[in-house]
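Researcher: Re-running this chain for the archive, since the previous output was lost when a drive failed. Same request as before.
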Amino acid sequence: QVQLVESGGDTVHPGGSLRLSCAASGFSVSSYAMSWYRQPPGKERELVARISTSDGVTYIADSVKGRFTISRDNAKNTVYLQMNSLNSEDTAVYYCKALIGPGYWGQGTQVTVSS
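Model: Regenerated structure tokens:
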């Protein structure tokens, strides 16, 4: 069955970097568009980035443009979110989503940016 497992969340200082991973099983990430979402404390979940099946990045949220990059390693069946120049507004639970049918979600990984 389809399964997504996020990892890489941590607590970092402002200006720091993290790379989140989304390991997929039950399907090939090369065959479906994949997305990263985040949910800040007390706020709704929002789309951060999406990568298409052709490996072209189709969407990066304005709030993270120039700082975050989405990529995919087909051999590892994993999608990544590289996050640089982190600030307190990036604090959130980050989720991976596979755009298969209604969509499949991972369990999320916590990113906290704090001095």
